[in-house]
Give the backbone structure.
Amino acid sequence: MKRLNWITGIFVFFVFLPIAFCASQKVTVEVDYGGLHQNRKVEIQWKRGITALEALQAVAKVESEYKEEYFLVTSIDNVVGRVGDKVWYYDINGKHATSFANKCILKEGDHVKWKYATDVCSRTIKKGE
């Protein structure tokens, strides 16, 4: 009986604990194309220091640029943002992002949602630059 308990303990330690530990080390990336493509949601492996931009780049073709002091994601899977019309925004765990995607460090289990939506920030970036 002691041997069975020992074998069960070893099995749990080497099989179930790593599975449970690794299951939490994911980040979910969701992309809402504003009706232009089918939305998608993908889980990727989390790693220390991964940014919202890097997570997006792991699941989609991304174009970005600096505009003055702003960092903008300008295109995801060929859906191009247009200042004054629709642009790309993201949130983390249902809350609006408070930093640029290239600076936003994700935590294990975070859910990043990118959304192609009406531009509400164009007043802060000069058009045509």
Observations:
- The first strand starts at residue 26 and ends at 32.
- Residues 26-124 form a domain with the Ferric Hydroxamate Uptake Protein; Chain A, domain 1 fold (CATH 2.170.130.30).
- Helices lie at 2-23, 52-57.
- The CA atoms of residues 57 and 76 lie 9 Å apart.
